[in-house]
Amino acid sequence: MELETGERGGRWMYEVDDGSIRLVNDGNGGSAPAGAQSTVHMSTETWLAVLSEDMTPAQAMQGRHVTVEGPMTPVTLM
User: Fold this and answer.
1) Which of 74, 46, 71 is nearest to 59 (CA)?
2) Angle ∠(77,17,46) on CA atoms, nearest 5
């Protein structure tokens, strides 16, 4: 799964497998590796709200603060 957080944010690649999450690319250089099944787009502000628990991932999606390209299953496993 790839996560993009907007112009002041970054781009990260995570591997979701059997309930575990592993960071594959830390977002500090270039594009994420090819092969992401899903790409999640959100603003830096939304990502920070989710990280600080001011907003749940479900609230971010229901409030249309997040868009997903590709299958939803890897995203919902996070």
Assistant:
1) 46
2) 40
For residue range 3-42, list pLDDT tens digits in order: 666 666 667 777 777 767 777 765 555 555 566 778 888 8
Quote the radius of gyration of the chain (alpha carbons, Å): 12
Rounded distance between C-alpha atoms, residue 72 and residue 9, angstroms: 22
Can you list the alpha helix ranges (DSSP code H) found in 16-72?
44-51, 57-62
- For residue 1, pLDDT beyond 90: no
In this predicted structure, the answer to whether residue 50 has a pLDDT above a threshold of 70 is yes
What's the predicted TM-score (pTM) here? 0.64
CA 47/CA 59 separation, integer angstroms: 12
Question: What is the rounded distance in angstroms from the CA atom of residue 65 to the CA atom of residue 30?
Answer: 24
Q: Token pair for residue 64? A: 């249309």
* Cβ neighbour number for residue 46 with a 10 Å cutoff: 21
